């Protein structure tokens, strides 16, 4: 394993861990705000936080004009649609269920990459690894017995989360296909800020734009959610632009999200506790990642 590839893996793990903290944080913040309004404020603040790290300020407006098509495409798919669905879905289902559902995103992205990208086709080994990870997620879900516990409302919430995953997959592929010189931090700053504004605007007709009780707990949760969005998306956009990176391969690391997301929910949120089946599911997820990355034949070309 070369050093560059190791650095990519470590950054991917860091981004996924940051994302996994969002589930408990959102549940805490939703005690004081509505889903769309919280999402809008969160992403708008995240976009502002990234402006000082996005390059020269005088070039900010010029780059928006230059790259406006890819910016609008990603802001609509990756933040507005994907996280609009996500915020509504996570407000309906428990945090650990949200983490489990979002953990299936590598499968969706792998299938999308197979049809939309020439150099990222699904093979038998990749399918085996992906379905092993999905099996671990299913085991966690079954062990928590989500269907009988929450009924029809929770099934609707899960369906909403899956709609968000489809939009997120399209956003990932769009970033990957645009191999230009656009700064990933700048791209994230603009797209996430625009997406946040769109979510705030959407909260008005849905009657979710309401006064917020600014408690210390809400402010802390909001600031953390804004920071992790700014950091994780910037890391991810950078990784998607690294030469030789494959979208489906990179997204397989997102199997970390349901594992750490569920653990953090069990630690932070009341009423969520681990059991032997959920722990077994997490082990299966971890083994699927090991099989995918360390089971590759030496002669296989990974620089497509």
The portion of residues assigned to helices is: over 70%
**Proportion of residues in extended strands:** under 5%
Spans of at least 5 consecutive residues whose pLDDT stays below 50 are 296-304
Please report the distance between the alpha carbons of the first and last residues. Answer: 17 Å
> What's the alpha carbon Rg, rounded to whole Å?
19 Å
Output the structural class: mainly alpha
Biggest sheet features? none
Provide the domain count. 1
Basic shape: globular
The number of distinct β-strands equals: 0
Chain-averaged pLDDT:
82
Q: Spell the H/E element sequence.
A: HHHHHHHHHHHHHH
- Total helix count? 14
How are the elements arranged and paired?
Blueprint lengths: L2 H18 L1 H8 L5 H16 L9 H7 L1 H25 L2 H8 L2 H12 L7 H21 L1 H32 L6 H20 L12 H26 L5 H5 L4 H13 L7 H19 L10
Helix pairs in contact: 1-11, 1-13, 2-6, 2-11, 3-5, 3-10, 3-11, 5-9, 5-10, 6-9, 6-13, 7-9, 8-14, 10-11
How would you describe this protein?
- With about 300 residues, this protein is mainly alpha-helical.
- The protein has one domain.
- The chain contains 14 helices and no strands.
- Helix 2 packs across helix 6 (about 95-100).
- It is globular and about 55 Å long.
- The protein starts with a helix and ends in a 10-residue tail after the last helix.
């Amino acid at each position: 394993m070369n050093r560059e590839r190791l650095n990519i893996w470590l950054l991917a793990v860091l981004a996924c861990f940051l994302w996994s903290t969002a589930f408990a944080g959102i549940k805490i913040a939703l005690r004081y705000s509505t889903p769309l309004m919280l999402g809008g404020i969160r992403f708008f603040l995240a976009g502002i936080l990234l402006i000082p790290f996005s390059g020269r300020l005088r070039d900010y407006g010029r780059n928006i004009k230059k790259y406006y098509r890819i910016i609008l495409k990603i802001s609509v798919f990756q933040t507005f649609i994907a996280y609009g669905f996500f915020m509504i879905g996570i407000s309906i289902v428990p945090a650990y269920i949200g983490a489990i559902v979002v953990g299936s995103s590598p499968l969706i992205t792998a299938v999308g990459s197979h049809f939309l990208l020439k150099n990222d086709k699904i093979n038998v080994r990749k399918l085996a690894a992906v379905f092993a990870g999905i099996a671990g997620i299913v085991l966690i879900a079954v062990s928590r017995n989500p269907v009988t516990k929450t009924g029809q409302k929770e099934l609707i919430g899960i369906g909403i989360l899956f709609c968000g995953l489809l939009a997120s997959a399209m956003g990932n592929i769009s970033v990957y296909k645009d191999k230009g010189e656009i700064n990933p931090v700048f791209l994230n700053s603009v797209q996430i800020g625009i997406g946040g504004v769109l979510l705030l605007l959407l909260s008005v007709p849905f009657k979710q734009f309401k006064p917020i009780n600014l408690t210390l707990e809400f402010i802390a949760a909001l600031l953390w959610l804004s920071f992790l969005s700014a950091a994780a998306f910037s890391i991810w956009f950078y990784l998607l632009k690294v030469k030789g990176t494959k979208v489906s391969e990179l997204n397989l690391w997102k199997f970390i999200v349901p594992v750490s997301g569920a653990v953090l929910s069990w630690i932070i949120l009341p009423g969520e506790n681990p059991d032997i089946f959920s722990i077994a599911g997490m082990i299966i997820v971890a083994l699927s990642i090991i099989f995918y990355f360390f089971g590759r034949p030496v002669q296989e070309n990974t620089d497509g």
